[in-house]
Structures are given as C-alpha cells and as structure tokens.
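Margin note from the TA: students keep mixing up input and output lines. Inputs are the sequences; the output is the structure of the whole complex. Example:
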Amino acid sequence: MLLFPLLLAIAPAASAGQAPPPGQSTEECDGSQAERLACLQRTAARAGGDVTQAEQALLTALRRWDEEPRFAAAARQRLAESRTAYARYRAAQCGLHAALGGGAIGSALEMRRLNCAAALDSVRAGELRRLASQLPRR
Amino acid sequence: MNPPKQKTGYELWKESIDGASANPGWNAHDQTIQTAVREINQHLAATPGFKKLDWQLIKAMIWVETGAESQEWTKKPMQIGVLNDPGVTSLLSGKEGGELVLPPAWKKVLALASIRTNPVHNIEAGIGYLMLRMAKYGFKSQIITPVPPYAVTVRPGDSLESIARREGSTVDIIKQLNPGAAKMIFPKQKLVVQKGSVQKVISGWMEITTTAVAQRYNGGGDPKYQDKLDYALAAVKKGK
C-alpha cells in the first residue's frame, strides 16, 4: 500500500545522482571479486546503519516538531509502516537484482544483491534526512 | 599545486596483476590448474563441438576472483561455494549437468564442505561449474550396453510405446534395431529390443571467451569482470 509513494520518493533522488544506481559498479569496491564481495558487505552494512540513524534523526525531529502531538504520533505511525514496506520492497527488488545474475556463482549473485541494497539504503537515508530537516522546530 | 590523484581500486588491482607473474605466490596453483584442465579436457573430448579449455584462462580467472593477496586464495581461489551458493548445489545435484561435465574421479571427492575449504577442490568445482554453464544440453535415447539385444513377440494391442515401456527401452532404440517396424507392427511379429532410456546429453558447446565467462560465471556481479579477465589473461600469457 505504501510502496508506490515510496517508489516515487526514491526515483527522483536516485536520478539526481545521490547514490550509484543499483547494479552500477561502486568505485571503492573494485578489486578482485573476493575483495569486492567483502567491500560490498561493508558498504551495505554501513548504508543499513545509515538508514537506522536517519530514522532516529527523523524521530528526534518529530519530537521537536512545532505541531500538535496527534500529528506527530500519526507521522511516527507512518514512519513505522514505511520502514516495514521499505524493508519488504528492498528484499524483493534486490532479490530481483540477484536473480538477474542467472546461473552465476553465489558470490556474484550476492554482489548484485548487496550493491542494490547499499544503493537503495543510501537513497532512503538521504530521503529521511531531507524530510527531518524540513520540519519546523518548536 | 594539485595533490596527487588517489588511485582507484581498479588501478590498484591492475598494479597487483602487473606484478603477479614474477611473484611465485600468484603462480602457486599452476600445477593444480594444469592437471584439472587436462583431466576435464580428456573427459569432455568426445562431446560434440568441444574445444580444449585453455588452462591460462582458468589461471586468469583465479587472479580476477581472488589473487595471492586475498585470504581466500588458499581456500576458495575460484570463489565458488560461498554460503548458500546455488552454483555448488547445481553442480553436485546430479541432474543439472554436473553429472555430465565432471570427470568420475572428481565426482567421488567433490563435496560442499571440501569445495569451501580445499583450494584444489575449489578449482575443480569452479572449472566444473564453468563447463556446466558453457555446455548445451539435449536428450537422446541411449542403450544400456551391458544388456545385449533380445527378441520379443508383439502382443495384440501393442504399440512401440507400450513395448518400450514394458521392456525398459525407448521407441527410438526399437526403431533403430527394427528399421521395418518404424511405420507399423502387428501381433506375433518378432522385434529386437535392447534396454535403454532417454538421457540428458551434452549436445554442443558455447565458445569459451572472456565475454562468455563474464556472463555465465559472474552474471554481472562485477560490471568490470570482463575487462579484468582480459587484463589478467593478457598478463598471464605475457608472463608464461
């Protein structure tokens, strides 16, 4: 239900070059395939952590928001729904990226999945931070 | 004055490849690769359209996949066999082509655990999986050789299909052994039958190029895979 607005939110940010599109080579992950896999694992973990931090930043901004508490509560509820829908979307989308590697060996498929997850998380974190920065403070 | 430009990961990787041939560590798997490639070339020599695999391509692949500076070099130089690798499952399943491309001696020893930890097995599994991905497959009636042909009598209501089913043979085999029975059979007719079944066979091969390896082994996991493989292969050939 929340997937469509989420996609709309992601698409312009991705095209604006805030993060490499899923599937595009990440410059720092460009050595041997073993190095690339380890590097993408670190990059994806960092990007996932960045999303968590951005969510926390938005929750903090909601606590300080110059708005009636019921609107802040509704926004927190929407954020929780968005988090769940995003996680489901990311799993499906990055599963698609991996599946499009066909019968390649497992490490190559995992690289495709991780590259996608890192790129999507980077966009998601940026979007959440932008939303937090737009809230007027009390 | 501008600060010196920082080298990219790709440039650093190329530098390590440039120095690889002169470094014994990077050549440590040569004998394993040469033996494995010789064995698989012998095993597949009789399949239609087979062209010998070049051991230097496999050497270039392990330089791209890991390289001597990687911790994986002494365990998984071909990188096949990471956790939940569907490639290993396909290779060892016995029904997706591994049963045809792997030499019998490899089939006896290759196992999931050993492919993940034993570099010789990892190289053999990587080569086996590459060949599994490069082979084209078809289906063909094959005679089970230890059982000699024998005669059967056609019963009322029989067809070639029912006889093949009853005798553990195939329609194609019965037709081959009884050229006159291809169009029509009749009760009390004697037919020669031999046990056999329709089996998956290798019917041809894709050309094994760096492009094909990048597509079939790496599947776009690294958009620069083919460039890297071309670079490594040139370095391997130059350093031989």
